[in-house]
Amino acid sequence: MHPRIGTSLRRALYFLLQCKAMSEVTLSAKHQIVIPREAREALDLKPGDKLVVSTVGGRIIIMEKPQSYRAALAGLARGLYPKDYLKKERDSWR
Hints:
The chain is built from four helices and two strands; from the N terminus they run ααββαα.
């Protein structure tokens, strides 16, 4: 895994990909859910911790809020483009 991915994101990805036991939750009349104990323990969540909820392809993803979004996103696209791509792109602006 990429070294710049934050610890909380690594934990969440591990839980999503490696955890064989899935827990079922029920949406209450107030649109609330209780995060199962196994998930709270896997992410070391405590009362007051901030979480980020996102939808991707019809699925809900819940992760710990990163301390810094900038640090969590740093290097995310590294390696997607050839090394000289940025220089060529900048040169084309002239």
